[in-house]
Amino acid sequence: MRLIKTEEAAGHVLCHDITQIIKGVTKDAVFRKGHIVREEDIPVLLSVGKENLYVWEKQEGILHENEAAQILCRMCRGDNMHPTEVKEGKIELIADCDGVLKIDVEKMNAVNCLGEMMIASRHGNFPVKKGDKIAGTRIIPLVIEEEKMSRAEALTQGEPIFQIVTYQKKRSGVITTGSEVYKHRIVDNFTPVIEDKLKEYGVEMEDYAICDDKPEMITDAIHKMLDKGMDMIICTGGMSVDPDDRTPLAIKNVAEDIVTYGAPVLPGAMFMLAYYDGDIPIMGLPGCVMYAKRTIFDLVLPRVLCNEKLKAEDLYRLGQGGLCLSCPTCTFPNCGFGKGA
């Protein structure tokens, strides 16, 4: 940096904050470190007693924080998001639509490990809404080596660290099981819960069936919904290990790919996920989904609606953070539930 006369400072970059003190009114930085001085700023600078200024000198191979911030943003920004204006080396990313945030965590960690730059975000694999802040990025020093930014870019291999994947309008069928419901001994209180969950993501229940506990009846109902073109089938109830609970057997009779029967999540340990014909999800929901506010269904449904084909490993990773604390005031998804290692 070098010292110059304030009258000659237009176009130069400040190396430190300039504080303005007006008794009883303000004591704050009138210009921040990194500010590019304009002609109209000069009278203000003189009024706060700055006859001379320390400014940054452009050097070969050295980037100003705002220049580097644009590069960092470019590395992070994927589909369906936009950046805020750059300020003091900082840019935030804002969601342009509803969807699920996907993060390449390995790349984000690798960039953060370089030092002098940072990326902070909300958790991936969770829903975001249009207008949500999803990440903040910043260059730490006033200037940074261009070569270091090039190394950071190379770590991303040309692919953005963040993406927002939009929901798909899947044709959904719901099969409620249980002799007590089938024989009208009790009212079906499960299906309305599922309908409400689907509506959170703009999805309507297009087909509905009630079945006894006989696995062949449930199997037949699943086949009929597939024949009608359902893109997703949800079976409720009959998911425990009791001899009378035969929904898992019915799902196994239909689906070629059984991803899991059981998951390290409470509520929702007896959850089942399978796929028919490669990409049509069939889910078996345990009874807790009916009465608990948030369960494994809330963790899985958004990702399924984004056409993500989940693997067993995706569910096994939910163990850390897989315990819902049933807080008196639920703040999900802005809590620890489902945020695994």
UniProtKB/TrEMBL annotation:
Alphabetical list of InterPro entries matching this protein: MoaB/Mog-like_dom_sf (IPR036425), MoaB/Mog_dom (IPR001453), MoeA-like (IPR038987)
Signal peptide: none
GO molecular function: metal ion binding; molybdopterin molybdotransferase activity
Cofactor(s) the protein needs: Mg(2+)
BP GO annotations: Mo-molybdopterin cofactor biosynthetic process
Function according to Swiss-Prot or TrEMBL: Catalyzes the insertion of molybdate into adenylated molybdopterin with the concomitant release of AMP.
GO cellular component: cytosol
Domain of life, source organism: Bacteria
Family, per entry: Belongs to the MoeA family.
SUPFAM superfamilies, per database record: Molybdenum cofactor biosynthesis proteins
UniProt keyword terms in alphabetical order: Magnesium, Metal-binding, Molybdenum, Molybdenum cofactor biosynthesis, Transferase
Protein name from the UniProt record: Molybdopterin molybdenumtransferase
